[in-house]
């Protein structure tokens, strides 16, 4: 693909990670994200695409449970990622819960605003809270508790969350969708490796699911660590989960 336009790490290359906190295949890829966070010369940047926002927000229903459970089982088999009873027999039976990507995306932005790297930590904590513990990660009190789990000051997090909610989160989601379109991605997760020389390529993670250490070694081989700036351009539409991915 062509050069991308979004600040690439001064350390060298940037792995752009387009995700949604409620995307099952992003949870499948979580060990891959964690594995490459300390690859020399590589920075990981997250981009929340707002899969379930606005008119795409979804209430939990028995039909939704029946739809997602086979895909969750497949993810568990492919990757070894755990799914808890709190999720299968708690959250997925909680018809009062609403699947809304915007509040947890704001929480990711707020955590990152407090400490560099905490945004990725928050993504992982949200995924565990959702898929293992079965918690309502669109609820403000749950998000505050998760931030505290990560060592964030409760008042500082609440302040950052309030400041970044609404327009700032909407702008982040819009930019992420533009990036997704520019990268030619079909949904979540999408990974793009942007090199310091301005070149960029989308990476198919399918072959690497469940093989985190091999994936890490591959990324280390691909990274060309030298300071530079690259960019990633922009524009996509609403997202929804498909059977094998969270797709546009």
UniProtKB/TrEMBL annotation:
InterPro entries to which the protein is assigned, alphabetical: DSBA-like_thioredoxin_dom, Thioredoxin-like_sf
Q: Name one Pfam family in it.
A: DSBA
Domain of life, per the record? Bacteria
Which stretches make up the DSBA-like thioredoxin domain?
A: 15-194
A GO molecular function term, named singly, is: oxidoreductase activity
User: What's the protein name?
Assistant: DsbA-like thioredoxin domain-containing protein
- What is the native source organism of this protein? Variovorax paradoxus B4
């Amino acid at each position: 693909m062509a050069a991308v336009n979004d600040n690439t790490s001064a350390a060298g290359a940037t792995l752009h990670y387009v995700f949604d906190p409620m995307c099952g295949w992003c949870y499948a890829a979580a060990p891959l994200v964690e594995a490459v966070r300390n690859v020399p010369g590589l920075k990981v940047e997250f981009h929340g695409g707002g899969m379930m926002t606005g008119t795409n927000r979804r209430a939990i229903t028995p039909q939704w449970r029946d739809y997602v459970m086979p895909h969750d089982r497949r993810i568990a088999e492919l990757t070894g990622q755990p799914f808890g009873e709190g999720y299968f027999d708690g959250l997925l039976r909680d018809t009062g819960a609403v699947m809304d990507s915007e509040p947890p995306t704001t929480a990711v932005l707020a955590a990152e605003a407090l400490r560099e790297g905490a945004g990725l930590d928050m993504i992982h904590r949200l995924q565990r809270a959702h898929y293992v513990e079965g918690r309502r990660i669109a609820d403000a009190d749950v998000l505050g508790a998760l931030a505290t789990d990560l060592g964030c000051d409760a008042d500082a997090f609440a302040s950052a969350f309030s400041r970044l909610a609404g327009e700032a989160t909407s702008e982040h989601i819009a930019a992420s969708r533009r990036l997704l379109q520019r990268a030619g991605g079909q949904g979540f997760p999408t990974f793009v490796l942007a090199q310091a020389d301005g070149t960029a390529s989308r990476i198919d993670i399918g072959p690497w699911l469940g093989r985190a250490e091999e994936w890490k070694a591959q990324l280390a081989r691909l990274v060309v660590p030298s300071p530079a700036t690259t960019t990633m351009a922009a524009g996509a539409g609403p997202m929804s989960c498909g059977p094998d991915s969270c797709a546009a």
